Amino acid sequence: MAPPATFATSLLQISKARFLLLALLLCVFFFWTLRPADESWADYTWSSTHVEVPKVPLEAHIMSKCPDARDCLEYLVLPAMAQVSNRVDFQLSYIGTPTNHNDGIECMHGETECLGNIVELCAANLYPDPKRYLGFTMCLSKQYQLIPDRDLIADCALEYGLSFERLNECMSQEDGAYGMGLLRSSVERSAEANVTYSCTIRLNEEIRCVRDDGTWKQCERGSSVESLIADIDDIYNKLETPPTTSGVPGER
């Protein structure tokens, strides 16, 4: 049996208990005073600093075996993209005529153009970075008369870091039905936009410029690279941007 506690021992035990209680109360006090007033603050600051900035829609509607498409890409689209690719949502679309009887597509320059369109769509599908698939498409366009020559495709794929084997698999997938589906969807997109000329450039869902028969048409704000970039910057600066925070809890 333990010896009876003295008064001093009892007082010491009480003092320790009070000290522990006081320490616990202080911890609770500091927790509640230092916590954010709004429980969603942490979530808000995360979401406000991890948002996607809106980009300007830029689209080129082309035919793979069209000299106007080559000129359009070489003299306007690629030079502009080299400077504003971080501010645009770029897309290549193709022009053709759907054949309802067999779910196919008729291309102005024949079946070889349809094959060229498909290989370029496969490139964009497999390698969505415009710097790669757009460069590959431009490479083919420089010798558009040879499309879809195997050596041409292989050389351009090698130059821009694309796998020829993967491109070939895309084109032959489902006995060609997959690639034809890509082309049909792209052609339907151009038709819905009422685009019939290769090359037609649309900016922010509106026709910005057309290259037809070796000349620029419908380019009300100019056909120069500088004028296109200026228009892109103007639209980009007007896009809505999310509110920013100062990093202080409770401020929005």
Automatic annotation (TrEMBL):
InterPro entries: Interferon-induced_GILT. Its main location: secreted. Keywords: Glycoprotein, Secreted, Signal. GO terms for cellular component: extracellular region. It comes from the Eukaryota. GO terms for molecular function: oxidoreductase activity, acting on a sulfur group of donors, disulfide as acceptor. It is found in: Secreted. The keyword Signal applies. Belongs to the GILT family. This is Gamma interferon inducible lysosomal thiol reductase. The lineage of its organism: Eukaryota, Fungi, Dikarya, Ascomycota, Pezizomycotina.
